[in-house]
Amino acid sequence: MPNPTGRPQVYHAIRPPESGVPAPAPALGMMFRRPRFYFSPSCQVYFRRYRNLRQEARHGPLTRIESTHSHFGMFHVEHSVHFPNVPRGTLCGRNSAGQPGTWHPVTMTTRQRPANATHWSTRTMAAAVGISEASVRRIWRAHGLKPHRVETFKVSNDPAFAEKLEDIVGLYLNPPEHALVLCADEKSQIQALDRTQPGLPLKRGRGRGATMTHDYKHNGTATLFAALNAANGEVFGLCQERHRHQEWLKFLRLIDQTIPPDRQLHLICDNYATHKHPKVQRWLARHPRFHLHFTPTSASWLNMVERFFRDLTQNRLRRGVFRDLEELIMAIGTYIDRHNESPKPFIWTARAAEHPGKSETRSPHPE
């Protein structure tokens, strides 16, 4: 039972009191030891309550905002984190002079900036408010604030953005019958890079990752023309040295020869000038089964093949070592062949009417 006076019972440092058997007084040397070394969990509860009573007498009523429980043998210990009883989001600390602070960490984080920086850190906020860095970190975590993170976005200025968005998303969600939806684009300027020195492999037991030199040898560039089948995830690819309308026409002829002639083809591509060249337009007029759907300006993220380019870069190109251009082209071709052995489609998870700026694709492959 807790002490009615609110003072700690020191004799609990030896053993818990038993019914009818008084506990012996502790030795003098034990009384001067640090509390964490000899106080029992039950006695620590009384010390916390005594500390809270002193804080209430000094600062006013307290409010417990976090409470967890744990058991140590036969004792029940309660861990509490207390702050002054003020509205949420207006926690204030003490300044260097010891007086109560007037700046609110949550309000300052969301509405103000430091004088010599673009965002707050735990150290600058702690110095401005007058509390510890741990308190700032705890307050930010409780309110879900992460000042160190920033997300980028791009707003399309295409006047026909809504119409193009609904057209492309409609092809993803409800493709036409007896037709293929192909997401086509080119990944240009793929560099064949060779490192100046061999890197070190992954080290076991020491937490050291694989290494690679910062400088490199440039051995040429290549352009990958790719078309992703939105239905099953299969990829058609062609590597060229340049990305002009001649190479684009060669890629369209490859698709025309690969896919059976009785299938209609709906190609989703961006507004690159190569795709709208007069010679390309004349070729499309002679092949009426090709239907081009252009993404809005500054909205190439609508094209699912961009997601495949991301996987190609992350899994094969970024850490690759290519001594010549032919080795780079062979590596890309091998990656596409392995991908087509067990292709999986990307699944469109957002609808055009929900929020055009937040539509995204989700890959079935685990990251």
In short:
The chain has helices at 28-31, 35-38, 41-59, 105-111, 122-129, 133-143, 161-173, 245-258, 278-286, 305-317, 325-341, and strands spanning 62-72, 75-84, 179-195, 216-229, 235-240, 264-269, 290-294, 347-348, 361-362. It has 367 residues and is an alpha/beta fold. It has 2 domains: 10-84, no CATH class; 161-362, 2-Layer Sandwich (Nucleotidyltransferase, domain 5), CATH 3.30.420.10.
Query: What is the count of distinct domains?
Result: 2
Structural class: alpha/beta
CATH topology of the largest domain: Nucleotidyltransferase, domain 5
Contiguous low-pLDDT stretches (5 residues minimum) are: 7-19, 26-38, 62-91, 93-102, 355-367
> What is the string of helix and strand elements?
HHHEEHHHHEEEHEHEHHEE
CATH superfamily of the largest domain: Ribonuclease H-like superfamily/Ribonuclease H
Percent strand: 15-25%
Architecture (CATH level 2) name of the largest domain: 2-Layer Sandwich
Largest sheet: 5 strands, mixed
Q: Assign a percent range to the helix content.
A: 25-40%
Radius of gyration: 33 Å
Task: Write down the overall mean pLDDT.
Answer: 77
The dominant shape is: elongated
Distance between the termini: 53 Å
Number of helices: 11
